[in-house]
Design goal:
By secondary structure, this protein is of the alpha+beta class. It is built from 17 helices and 41 strands. About 45% of the residues are buried.
Amino acid sequence: MNLNRFTLVFSSAGYPFPAAIKLRSAILFNAPLLFSLMLVTLGKAAELANESPSRGNVSHPPHLWKPVADNTYLQEIGEQIPTDRAVTSVAVHGTNCFAVVGGVLKLVAAGNLNDSLGAPKGIRRLKSLGDSLWATTTDGTFRLSGSGWERVDTRTFTDFCLHLGQVLAATRDDLFRFENGHFVSLRPPAGYLSSDTTLIREDFSQVLSEPVQIGPIDRIASYSGTVYLLRPGGLALMEGATFLADPIDWGALPSPVTRDMLAHGSRLYVATDRGLAVLRGMAMTTLRGADGLPYEDTTCLSDGFDGDLWIGTTAGAIRRTGEDYHFFGAHHWLPGDYVRDIAVANRTAYIATDAGLGIIRYEPFTLSKKAAWFERELKQWGMKRLGFIHKLYWGGDGEGWLREISDNDGGNTAHYLAAMTFKYAATGDEQAREEATEAFKAMLWLGDITPKPGFIARAIWSVKGDKGERSTEGSGGLPAKWYPTSDGLWFWKGDTSSDEVNAHMYAVSLFYELAAKGDEKDLARRHIANIASHILENGWVLRDMDGKPTRWGRWDPDYLLRPYGFDSRGLNGMEAQTYMQTAYALSGDAKFQHGLEQLLAWRYHTFTVRQRLTFPPDQIAPWDDELAFFCYHPLLRYTSDPALRSIYLRSLERTWEILRRHQLPFFNFSYGILTGNDCEAPQAAQHLREWSLDLVNHSYRNSHRSDLALPRGYVAYSGGTRAISPRESEAKWGDRSPLQYDGGENGRAVTPPAGWLEDYWMGRYYGFIEPPNAGDLAAVLLPEPAATSRGAAPYVGPPRPMPRPIFK
């Protein structure tokens, strides 16, 4: 019996690949098991005869990871309103948000800042307390209540607070209480007393004290039934008419530069330029970068909507929820870096910056809803073309958004092919299978369009249908190689590299296993065999139209076993073994087994364990990690030899230990699939939740942050520090490196969420993520799409040719 084909039958019948592999290995040593196993799988084999993949609840072998429930969470959705002057203050009153721009009060409405009619001018500070909105100006203090704006005092106040149900206000040197429509000074006739200067006569008959000045006052707050005063560089409090200049028993402010104060539950927070001071009782501690605070130069504070704390800084906004910190910077989330004020209400944060107003609202989501959102975004942005998935770039006001015909259209589309394959295998959704089939046929076309069987193109350009420009640069800075087709309709890009080959091996073999039907299986089998044959028969290289090896398509010993290819021998050697193992498993052609034996004779397998480089850190290409995992999937699915499996598993164990701190679902889930070991699935699911819904590649910066220390339990084997959240970078596909702290394209590109969809549906199919609980409809149902059109115009050009026929 062909044991490779047994593995395919068993796994395609609905059993996970690791189980099939392990069973096949067991058969090698225990032939009597074969008959009983065939009986067990008889029902599944009947299903295979009808070419129906496993669907719905997938059965998995014993494993050490636990599935993650797809519980409802709150998803951030960002909006920005740029301004030509700083937004200096913001407040929410009733259902309205007000912002101050250049001293003028604006009403936030439908993405605009409109003048608030009848409002006072020259506003310095805005505060919503009780049932009123308070505005202090150069001309006095005003209140907005049910009857409109009214002037309640001629003084300019520095701050307001609510204390024991009453509104208090402060000037630079005095405290006031609002009573009967106006503010009344709390200063006693004899002035405020000081606990430091109070003297008592020997007969206790009289208290002697000189009145003191309580100012200058920057902020006031009501904490634990006491009025606290924030003065420049210090904290004080009032005991009735007595002023306590230093009420702290333990600790001190981290800096004399103090900017804001907020009473928040059992704590009083003070914003400084060196982190937050935290008063609890009479003990003061600090929150700084080492404690998880992303940036220490803080400017303002605000209560959140769910016990959370919002912190403004000179370089973005921070949400503290529990022990987690979420960083929101320009230009992804905010119009500018410097945050002047924050107001939060109704699950929405309004963030005033020097360049405009940032709005972050939170909506209930599940990961399942997010998947539906991203699938709809692919369509609405116009990212699909001829079965390929494309990034968009801004072509200017005249051309708008254009699809990028990239250096790696096959590799990029492979993510979407895998995503829709996993979705179909997990749900049986025929629309998902159609999407997968479209992507599969596009990848077949990359092989069919070239005159050389098995030599796949990087990308295809339509002479009559595509807009914009073809790329002019190829691998390693060399000129791009574009070749015309004989009918004059297309150009295809050569100089193909290992990136494309790995992507085809990974995604097409998954499609073959889980979604292909009828002739699609033969097409997939031929496609894989053709690629492997080209490499094998051309001296272990991809040979371009000029007969020379491509820049990055080499697996020959003249390259890998010489100093020039030293750094590549581990990964490229593993790639070559993957191609032979996969082609042999799908085709059964013995020449691929012989090819593998040649690789083993060159001892390529001995370099595999340490394929992942760790030094020097600045020479490590992050996309190589994805290329390696493209190989691990088919390599460990199709390898039956126990000695080789031992090597490949050790390679995977070593690589994942290096990459574990990245917390990327693609790596974590892949490791869990292929080993059954704990793979930090909760961290991977959280990564998926933290992706922004905004796919535009805004510029982002994190390298200035104070919280980049490596988390406990992780080791930076290859340099760097900790991974940043996808919330704090941009939408990515390909390597998806979380160690790239700065980047983005200034809003002039849009990346498809194909990587996110691949990770989510991989998690669903293999059981790392459970189906959602539909109890909360808001977390399940998508809102109506925006009516305005956006993205790239529909492709108008010749259709994709039919795949080359199979002659049987």
